[in-house]
Amino acid sequence: MKRIHIYRHVDCEGPGYLEEFLDVHHFAYDIIGIDLGDPVISDLSQVSGLVFMGGGMSANDEFPWIEQELALIRNAKQLGIPMLGHCLGAQLISKALGGQITDNPVTEIGWFSVNKTLGLNIDWLEGVASKFLPFHWHGETFSLPNGAINILSNEHCTNQAFLLDNIMAFQCHIEMTEEMVDEWVHRFDYQLENPSDSIQSFDEIIAHKLENIPAMQAVANIFYREWGNWVREYAEK
After folding, report:
1. Please, are residues 227 and 82 in contact by the beta-carbon 8 Å criterion?
2. What is the pLDDT of residue 1?
3. Helices (H) and strands (E) in the chain, counts
4. Domain range for 28
């Protein structure tokens, strides 16, 4: 049976709600822990989909595994394997396919709404509200690879998500669980010491997590369901 490979780069930035979704819908998957020294797997013959998670490093860094993942993404694109990226993972996909990773105009941390791009003629996206509230934690941004469609944006970051064939990539974090939010704000609380228009305080992030997470996960279901359809279609070829 072909399986989804999920690349985790930091111990606290696993698949989160995506893992719950995959379990409920009976997808077979493996988590490759780059943080644990697991190797990047180049053999894609038994892979039904690739997922790349976040991390505090930059896609422009010169770690050996970054170059290996970029090569893996390019190979997967040629083979037509569905891919899904979250934050750093989205930036890796963009860079591998010809995009550029640059500093975002501002660091964006906390609960900030994003807007769905106007004029999209994509049936399954009709279920996504014109504005919804995901989580954010990033200081860099990606440009759109050739042929990609920008589907989400906000005042802090123009490119919040893109589609390219059977690839989805999100700068924002739709995979968050309550436990992940708690761990991130405690582990990286030093990044929240100077709140601004684009950086929320520790207290503000925590205060709104219980009301924001269920609504965000409801939106994540729409994206993950469609991506899961692409995975099943590819696995059946």
Report:
1. yes
2. 85
3. 5, 11
4. 3-235
